[in-house]
Design a protein that fits this description.
The protein is of the alpha/beta class. It has 9 helices and 17 strands. The protein folds into 2 domains: 157 residues, Quinone Oxidoreductase, Chain A, domain 1; 118 residues, NAD(P)-binding Rossmann-like Domain (Rossmann fold), CATH 3.40.50. Strands 3, 5, 6, 8, 9, 16 and 17 form a 7-stranded mixed sheet that branches. β16, α9 and β17 form a beta-alpha-beta unit. The protein is globular, with a radius of gyration of 19 Å.
Amino acid sequence: MKAITYTAYGTPAELQIVDAPTPKVAPGEVLVRVKAAGVNPVDWKLAAGYLDPILEVRYPVIPGWDVAGVVEAVGPDTFDYAVGDEVYGYVRKEWVELGAYAELISAPVRTLARKPRELTFEQAAGIPLAGLTAYQSLRRVDIAAGETVVIHSAAGGTGSLGVQIAVALGARVIGTAGAHNHDYLRSLGAEPVLYGEGMADRIRALAPEGIDAGLDFYGDGAVEILQGLVRDRDRVVSIADQEAAAKGAHQLWVRPDTADLTFLSELADRGALTVNVEHALPLEQAAKAWELSAAGRTRGKIVLTV
């Protein structure tokens, strides 16, 4: 099978497209023929060595954790899916080695769910990591209908899904973004606020009574700003600030979860969750996809088509 690989920590230039062996399929796993693979910042951060202190890496690495595709084969004593089923998932295993930037991937069933019927494979591949991150962040701060939540970096891949999920849960959403993304946020159901100097004052003007929760999907001092706005300092979560826990906020690391993925599928199938795929590139352009991701100017998601 064709796959993207790297053999040492480095830059996107080190990515190669190679012929790789078909993955073995263990009990409790299925073999998925990949239709699309989601691109996330963690992919190139892993390849640069930023997560070496906490994640085991075995070379050569096929990167990518987000996948949408069709079940090609099932492992022994695996009855959750049948050949031909359309699935999607956040396929994070015990170590980094055999990922989604390939024609085939073996996936533990605990990392998968049925693909949303109303979305394309490219759109579905953009959901798992970002959608789970957003949903699990909202659950971590116990957001409830009628409450007000601020989402920092609301137009990005995780933020744009977080806005839609929060709206579907009945929350009022204030989203920070550059001015060029404000109409986009309004279309998702958020009230946009310009980030940068004076952001806290602009949020207070929209919610003078204070906010109930804050989600930081970008960093850059947002944890402290959000803690100064929430009524309860315990209701701030960050995926971007590595010192968030030390500051008294929740520091979230997303987990694969079939039930959560199923919930996101149900939202998509009733029209409450969609994915803006800004770039859909062929597998062999993975390096370009990483460069676009690292630039940090993407509205929505980047995916690779296989």
